[in-house]
C-alpha cells in the first residue's frame, strides 16, 4: 500500500538521521564510523524486529522477470508493532552480492519509515486485517512505487543514515586531499544534429545518461565498498552532496533551447 505523507524538507530528514546516529553513539559509547552498524541501530537501539520472508507469497504479489525471479517488493514494515520483513531475495547470507541493497533496505524501513512516518500510523488504524487476524503492513515498499513521496523520503533518510555527510566528506578528503568536487567528462558522447527528431534526441539523451551513471558508479565504487552500500546508492549520495557533477555536452544545451 502507499501511505500518504506530508512534505518534509530534505534538511529536516538529514538532521533527524544525524540525530539518530548521535543518539546511538551516546547510548553505546561507540564512535560512529563507516560502515554504519545499521543492524545494531535498528534492532538493538530502536528495538525493532527484522526478519526475512517471501513477501511476494505473503502478500500475494507475483515476482516479475524471467521465470518470476525479479522481486518487486523489497520490504514491509508494521509501524504499529515495529516489525520489519525484508524479502528473502535480499538475504546477504545466501547472496553476498546484495549486502549493500540489504543494508539500504534495513535503513529505509527501520530508519526512514520508522522515524519519519510512525506518527501517521494512527491515521491507518481503521484498516481491516489482510491475513486472517494478522494486520496488513503499514507500508509495503515496491520498486514500482519508488517515486511515491513516502518512498523518496525513506530513501533519502536511508542515504543520510548510511552515508553521513561528515563521514563522506572525511573519506573524500582522505582520498583527494581536499573538498573539491569532481566533474565527469566523457570523450565518447554521441553528437546529435540540431535538426534531429525529438524521439531521436530523447533516445540519445537516455543512452548517454545510462553511460554517465555507469561511469560515475565505477568512480564511486571504492567509497561504496568503504560504507558497505551499493555503487548506485553512493553515486546518488555523492551527486546530492555536490561532490560529483556531470559535464553537460554542448549539443544538449543547444537542443534544450529548441
Q: Explain this structure to me?
A:
This protein has 258 residues and is α/β, with parallel strands linked by helices. The chain folds into two domains: 10-162, no CATH class; 177-256, no CATH class. Helix content is 48%, strand content 10%. It is built from nine helices and six strands, in the order ααβαββαβααβααβα. Strands 1-3-2-4 form a four-stranded mixed β-sheet. The chain has a two-stranded parallel ribbon with strand order 5-6. The longest helix has 30 residues, at 198-227. It is globular and about 60 Å long.
Describe the structure in brief.
By secondary structure, the protein is of the alpha/beta class. 48% of the residues lie in helices and 10% in strands.
Number of helices: 9
Radius of gyration: 20 Å
Please give the number of β-strands.
Answer: 6
- Class by SSE composition: alpha/beta
What percentage of residues falls in helices of 4 or more residues? 40-55%
Largest beta-sheet details? 4 strands, mixed
Straight-line N-to-C gap: 41 Å
User: Main sheet: which strands, in order across?
Assistant: 1-3-2-4
Kindly estimate the percentage of residues that lie in beta strands according to DSSP.
5-15%
> Can you give the mean pLDDT?
85
Cα shape: globular
Amino acid at each position: 500500500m502507499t501511505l500518504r505523507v506530508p512534505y518534509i524538507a530534505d534538511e529536516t530528514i538529514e538532521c533527524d538521521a544525524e540525530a539518530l546516529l548521535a543518539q546511538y553513539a551516546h547510548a553505546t559509547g561507540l564512535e560512529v564510523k563507516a560502515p554504519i552498524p545499521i543492524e545494531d541501530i535498528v534492532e538493538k537501539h530502536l528495538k525493532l524486529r527484522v526478519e526475512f520472508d517471501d513477501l511476494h507469497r505473503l502478500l500475494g504479489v507475483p515476482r516479475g522477470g524471467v521465470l518470476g525471479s525479479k522481486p518487486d517488493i523489497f520490504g514491509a514494515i508494521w509501524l504499529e508493532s515495529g516489525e520489519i520483513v525484508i524479502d528473502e531475495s535480499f538475504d546477504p547470507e545466501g547472496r553476498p552480492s546484495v549486502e549493500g541493497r540489504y543494508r539500504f533496505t534495513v535503513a529505509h524501513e527501520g530508519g526512514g519509515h520508522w522515524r519519519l512516518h510512525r506518527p501517521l500510523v494512527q491515521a491507518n488504524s481503521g484498516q481491516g486485517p489482510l491475513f486472517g487476524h494478522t494486520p496488513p503492513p503499514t507500508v509495503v515498499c515496491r520498486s514500482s512505487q519508488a517515486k511515491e513521496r513516502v518512498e523518496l523520503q525513506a530513501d533519502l533518510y536511508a542515504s543520510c543514515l548510511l552515508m553521513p555527510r561528515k563521514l563522506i566528506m572525511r573519506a573524500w578528503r582522505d582520498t583527494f586531499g581536499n573538498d573539491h568536487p569532481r566533474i565527469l567528462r566523457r570523450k565518447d558522447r554521441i553528437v546529435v544534429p540540431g535538426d534531429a527528431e525529438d524521439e531521436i534526441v530523447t533516445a540519445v539523451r537516455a543512452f548517454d545518461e545510462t553511460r554517465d551513471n555507469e561511469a560515475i558508479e565505477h568512480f564511486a565504487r571504492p567509497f561504496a565498498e568503504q560504507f558497505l552500500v551499493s555503487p548506485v546508492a553512493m553515486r546518488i549520495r555523492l551527486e546530492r552532496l555536490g561532490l560529483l557533477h556531470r559535464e553537460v555536452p554542448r549539443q544538449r544545451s543547444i537542443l534544450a533551447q529548441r
